[in-house]
């Protein structure tokens, strides 16, 4: 199965090796240094970028160096990149500058964009569309339900996180979204309300989606895996 958004560089290497036995890991990066760690991983889908939370800490030149790293290593994905008005609104203008640069390169190289956008969902979608990006993941989507139709129309995807077990808004998203745009993620090793998020916890997400969709677990797995293979062109 696919974990479509996980911070592999934060896990011990032997733990990642164990997960690879059962999971296809889409490994996102947070900054230049973690991007360098991500490209060294073997047998994973590599995403390179600078997280909105890290934009204000980035050194002059980090953006261009990260962009060159994407080209040098020919990675299939840019991420974790995006906008955040909820947690770091004070750096929003610089976030827009960085996001625009990553989107331009993603369009030129036909890359997937792994997007973070709390309280900036609409802005992020508009920037993705203006940049003419074809493939994007809106990670851990908890935005307005009416945007789900826009995401589908643009050909993008959302990820459902294990937090769906307890996060009511995320449950509403999971129930409302067109099933053809749903992917799964762990966002590990993030800690959320006492849960240590990691790839194996996605099995609990499957169980919750089975409940929300009123469908067998095998059906849920088939749907999300078909979606992932379509996105990653496998």
Automatic annotation (TrEMBL):
User: Residues that bind a divalent metal cation 2, according to the entry?
Assistant: 116, 139
Keywords of the record? Hydrolase, Metal-binding
Which GO molecular function entries does the Swiss-Prot or TrEMBL record give? hydrolase activity, acting on ester bonds; metal ion binding
Superkingdom classification of source: Archaea
InterPro entries in the record: Metal_Hydrolase, TatD-like
Q: Which residues cross the membrane?
A: none
Which annotated residues bind a divalent metal cation 1?
5, 7, 80, 187
CDD domains associated with the record: TatD_DNAse (cd01310)
> PANTHER family under this entry?
HYDROLASE OF PHP SUPERFAMILY-RELATED PROTEIN (PTHR46317), HYDROLASE, TATD FAMILY (PTHR46317:SF1)
Tell me which family the UniProt entry assigns to this protein.
Answer: Belongs to the metallo-dependent hydrolases superfamily. TatD-type hydrolase family.
- Return the protein name: TatD family deoxyribonuclease
Native organism is Pyrobaculum aerophilum
């Amino acid at each position: 199965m696919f974990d479509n958004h996980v911070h592999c560089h934060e896990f011990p290497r032997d733990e990642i090796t164990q997960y690879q036995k059962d999971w296809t890991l889409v490994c996102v990066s947070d900054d230049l240094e973690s991007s360098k760690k991500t490209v060294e991983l073997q047998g994973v889908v590599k995403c390179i970028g600078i997280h909105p939370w890290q934009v204000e800490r980035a050194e002059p030149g980090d953006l261009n160096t990260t962009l060159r790293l994407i080209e040098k290593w020919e990675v299939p994905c840019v991420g974790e990149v995006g906008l955040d008005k909820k947690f770091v609104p004070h750096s929003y203008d610089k976030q827009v500058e960085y996001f625009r640069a990553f989107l331009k390169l993603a369009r030129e190289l036909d890359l997937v964009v792994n997007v973070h956008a709390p309280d900036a969902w609409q802005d992020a979608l508009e920037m993705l569309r203006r940049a003419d990006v074809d493939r994007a993941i809106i990670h851990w989507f908890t935005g307005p339900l009416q945007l789900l139709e826009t995401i589908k129309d643009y050909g993008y995807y959302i990820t459902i996180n294990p937090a769906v077990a307890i996060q009511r808004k995320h449950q509403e998203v999971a129930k409302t979204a067109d099933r053809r745009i749903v992917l799964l993620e762990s966002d590990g090793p993030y800690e959320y309300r006492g849960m240590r998020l990691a790839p194996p916890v996605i099995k609990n997400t499957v169980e919750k989606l089975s409940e929300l969709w009123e469908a067998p677990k095998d059906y849920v797995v088939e749907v999300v895996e078909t979606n992932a293979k379509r996105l990653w062109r496998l």
